[in-house]
Design brief:
The chain is an alpha+beta fold. 26% of the residues lie in helices and 35% in strands. A hairpin with a 5-residue loop joins strand 3 and strand 4.
Length: 137
Amino acid sequence: MRYWLFKSEPSTWSWDDQVRKGAEGEEWDGVRNYQARNFMREMTVGDQGFFYHSQKEKAVVGTVEIIAEAHPDSTTDDPRWECVDIKALSTAVTPVTLDMIKADPRLSGMILVRNSRLSVQPVTKEEWGIVCEMAGL
């Protein structure tokens, strides 16, 4: 199993929106960055990820599971763009802010710390465990 982080602006698609989709989940559509798209191509069903609210909140607010591997993004006719489907798993007891992540030296190598603009990114198993602990998961 691999781990990932999905960033979303809460005003566009929030954790509450994701939770409301239930077991059917939702396409992680609209990604127009080649590196983020390529990461989604690496995902397999059962992989897990953090759901991260960007902009004002800047925090991990829950965990998700990949329920469909990369397929054409339904929001475009351009065949270059693909996406995965995800479903909500767990809500963070304590949202883990970017400041909290940056303050923990064990997370200094996390891509979120070094490249906060990338909307889909891998997370190591160690980083996953640390952030889950911080979130009360």
